[in-house]
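FORM 7B: Structural annotation worksheet

SECTION A. Query
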Amino acid sequence: MPTTPPSLPLRPVELPARAAELTAAALACGALEPIPTQLEIVEQAGVRFQLRVLDSLWRKERAQARQRQGEARGEPSDPFGPCDPALLLGDLSPTHRCVLNKFPALARHLLIVTRDFEDQQRLLTVADFHALWLGLQGIDGLAFYNGGPAAGASQPHKHLQLLPTPLAPSEPAVPMLARLAIHQRRDDHHRAVGLPFDHALHHLPPGLVDDPRQAAVASTGAYHRLLTAVGLARRPGDPHQAGPYNLLMTRRWMLLIPRQREAWQGCSVNALGFAGSLLVRDHAELDRVRAVGPMALLAHTGRSSGAGTQGGPQDPGAAL
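SECTION B. Predicted structure
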């Protein structure tokens, strides 16, 4: 049985305008509670890392505390079942709907959520990628997925996420592109030169966005090859992932990063960290990240590759 009733179908071309309209309405009624941040740029290894210092997390922490209290009383705790109507853009596909992130630190932060409950640690499917490509058809941005709590997932209901780019005005569309554009081919995938965390990179053929169904099949195959490349190959008969990971994706490439822990020295990292965008709780945490370096934080929360942040031959890669 669906966790939420069907909503009006949402065409990809309508996504930008619909997101803008719903954002304004949700702000006006208080359903949307953006988290104000202060942007700091920390440059390392050619990457202009975006560090956002949170002014206050009290609203999100208050909501999470209410959720924990509700769980203790045996109340339903799934924020997506049913979705808050004030945050619901509509159904992207028969299996997925699009909602606004209730506590966004970045503007127009969209969530692509399974209508029926699925566990966040289940492998992504063709249906997941189909919905994601419908989102990317409407918004040429950055999609990402946090595969499990150790990868930064805060909710157990399967959801992918989509942000318009650039992630900050007057900054590169995706900060980590500065490193991803320098890579070496390894069988069916690439590895970016000089990144200190394990990963696998795949270039998507041009034009996939024009046919989301074909794109879903192609990207699902690429996704499983990337999992295999980092030692997280699917286990026969098991629909769950073999370990925590993050997935970053645009219309042009996919990057998969295995994870060993969600945080290091109190600094949490989700998929956006590996795109070059980090959230820090206060200026003390900002100082710690500056001192150790954002790349070291990624190496400690990802799985160390043994490579230095500056090492490796500088082979020019294809434009991403």
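SECTION C. Observations
The two ends are 41 Å apart (CA to CA). The helical segments are 15-29, 58-72, 126-138, 177-180, 212-229, 283-292, 294-301.

SECTION D. Sign-off
Analyst initials: ____
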